[in-house]
């Protein structure tokens, strides 16, 4: 599994890992039933502390994007499609908060409502392969 981290960016490393795993799920690159590397192994591959990967995995398990294996082996896996998390009020609130901040910045930069809407739709309709394909 390949994950690309921006160690000098503003987004915490555990969030970058979580976002790229979600993108892999959304793009279909990470299929239901796929077991992810152990936190220690992925941390070693990424050259980060294992606590960073543990935090990413823990967040994804809390949100329902990952499950612990219960077949006698250790690890986490991608759940079946019918077990994936759905849109919740918490997600809607987080989405609205982030979009409000971006909309305000766009208005301050002179972006029109149509331009902002088009940018949102373009991103939503993208196939996410830029991130997802790099996860295998």
From TrEMBL:
Pfam family, one: GntR
Gene3D superfamilies: Winged helix-like DNA-binding domain superfamily/Winged helix DNA-binding domain (1.10.10.10)
InterPro entries documented for this protein: Tscrpt_reg_HTH_GntR, WH-like_DNA-bd_sf, WH_DNA-bd_sf
SUPFAM superfamilies, sorted: Winged helix' DNA-binding domain (SSF46785)
Keywords, ordered alphabetically: DNA-binding, Transcription, Transcription regulation
Domain HTH gntR-type residue range list: 11-81
Domain of life assignment: Bacteria
SMART domains named among the record's database cross-references: HTH_GNTR
Entry protein name: GntR family transcriptional regulator
Source organism of this protein record: Paenibacillus lignilyticus
Organism classification: Bacteria, Bacillati, Bacillota, Bacilli, Bacillales
């Amino acid at each position: 599994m390949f994950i690309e981290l921006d160690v000098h960016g503003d987004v915490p490393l555990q969030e970058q890992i979580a976002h790229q795993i979600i993108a892999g799920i959304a793009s279909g690159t990470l299929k239901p039933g796929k077991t992810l590397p152990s936190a220690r192994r992925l941390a070693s591959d990424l050259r980060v502390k294992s606590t960073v990967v543990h935090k990413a995995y823990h967040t994804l398990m809390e949100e329902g994007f990952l499950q612990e294996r219960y077949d006698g082996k250790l690890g986490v896996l991608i759940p079946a499609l019918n077990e994936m998390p759905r849109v919740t009020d918490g997600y809607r609130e987080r989405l609205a908060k982030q979009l409000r901040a971006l909309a305000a910045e766009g208005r301050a930069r002179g972006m029109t409502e149509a331009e902002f809407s088009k940018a949102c739709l373009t991103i939503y309709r993208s196939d996410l392969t830029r991130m997802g394909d790099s996860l295998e």
